[in-house]
Amino acid sequence: MSDPFKGIEPMVYQSKINVPYSWWAGDTASKFYITLRDEKIILGTKCETCNKVFLPPRKVCPSCFTENREWVTLADEGTVLSFTVARRRFAAIPNNKKVPVIWGLIKLDGADTAMLHYLDEIKPENVTIGMRVKAVFSEVRQGTIRDISHFKPVQ
Amino acid sequence: MDRTAVIGVGMTKIEKNKVRETFADMMWEAVNKALDDAGMTIDDIDNVVTTSSDFWDGRTISCMAVGDASGAAHKNVSCVEGDGAYGAFYGMTRSLSGSYKTTLVTGHSKGSQSVSSLITNSAFDPIYERGLGMDMITACAMQASSYMHRTKATPEQLAMVSVKNHGNALKNPLAQLPMKITVRDVLESEMIADPLHKLDCSPISDGCAAVIIAHESVAAKFKQKPVWIKGVSICADSFFFGDRDLSRARSLTEAARKAYAMAGIKDPKKEIDFVELYDAFTYQELMWLEEMGLVDDAMAGKLLEKGEFDMDGRLPVNASGGLLSGHPVIAAGLYSMAAVVRQIRGDAGGFQVKNAKTGLVHGLNGLGGQSHCVFILDKDK
Lengths: 155, 381
Ligand SMILES: [Zn+2]
Hints:
The complex is a heterodimer of chains A (155) and B (381).
Chain A: H1 26-39, E1 42-47, E2 52-54, E3 70-74, E4 77-86, E5 101-108, E6 115-119, E7 132-137, E8 148-153
Antiparallel strand pairs in A: 1-2, 1-3, 4-5, 4-7, 5-6, 7-8
Chain B: E1 4-11, H1 23-38, E2 47-51, H2 54-57, E3 76-80, H3 84-96, E4 102-110, H4 116-121, H5 136-151, H6 155-169, H7 183-188, E5 191-193, E6 196-197, E7 206-215, E8 227-236, H8 250-263, H9 268-271, E9 274-276, H10 282-291, H11 300-305, H12 332-345, E10 358-365, E11 371-378
Bound molecules: zinc ion (ZN).
The site of zinc ion has 7 residues of chain A, from loops.
């Protein structure tokens, strides 16, 4: 069969999917974000059956399918369970973050699960698994995960 | 329980950019190849399961874009969103249902048409996690750090996975990135997200694959040697990224255990002859092998160094070149399944392994393998 594209540039149709979307945060995340924004306090939810504290807080225990009824105030310090450093400007990285960006998986004292956030005020090569870090809250807080600016090493 | 068999497979070549083809064009090619392979016509197909992802396809109800080209007109067609292995699971259950005897299962995607960082960022929880800007690469890099910390697997061992699989791809004409490279090439390639270098990561790819799954009552009716599905299981872990011990894949261990039990396998280390698994990143090959119980804990790197997973090794892993050599998301699990089917039939050509009687196919969904699917395929019923 002859090549239908011989001498022709294949046509490419340029387009975009860009649909505004609002996520209703629900009562659990609302309480978490309001407390974070107004009091600089990080809350988790607790399953009384499993005796486990979840961060990010959610309404249903992922292990036993019961409702997490209790709220627990967590420390603003914790341990780095893992981390990575973006060396390239990946498209998903927010515009106001400079590469290299360091993300950590951080288990706050008092929580049984870990949360994702940024690590900063440290060079990428000095980050280690097991290091202790502390939350730095943003000056301007708007009820988002970035009301925590980042975590920094505990001195 | 009734049995099913894979009786036909068809795949397009995996390419960086199929700029000459639409989704339907790729589908037309893969489906016709599968029908030819099986010695069937579209009239012999009772029903169709397509596998796709709306975000990757840039539209909703993405299955509708390939319905015509998959011969679904006037048939019962349904869509699975996720890896192709999950589509094959659903297709198998339809062939077991009593309503249908033959099911055509397809999977397609084109990474080239979109921006994978933005698409995979959308897999994170929108309220708590997405705004931090992680994606599949950075999520898996974090998992790699965690795995290497626990097992002491080295960057050199990870690099050897890349060397092996790109080398295997030299024998597979459908692979996108056949390459003769060295450990040094991998370690000197760009550091993308610590600890993953560019050559630790699978490429952006386009491709489409199709398999035909038949009930045992009709499996021998057509031209191809049936390859029997002896065991299968899917297991999911917690959704939130930080709920899991990232250095482990509890749901994979469970899925493998159930699939072995269904297949009557007592000692997978001895009874599984070869594996095609989801090596989107180098560390994953080592980690999944351990978590499936095919090698001892934290030993995969050392066994790899000894050549055990080479094409002519004790347990060939990703003899096709794996996903490191071409990674059409969604279609991936069906490419792996097709590779195992061809091995068992003795049709794998240049990447044929010896004594390919019992093979394992592994597919996954989610960031760092939130959910896993394991198939055991066998020459014997
Ligand atoms: Zn519970």
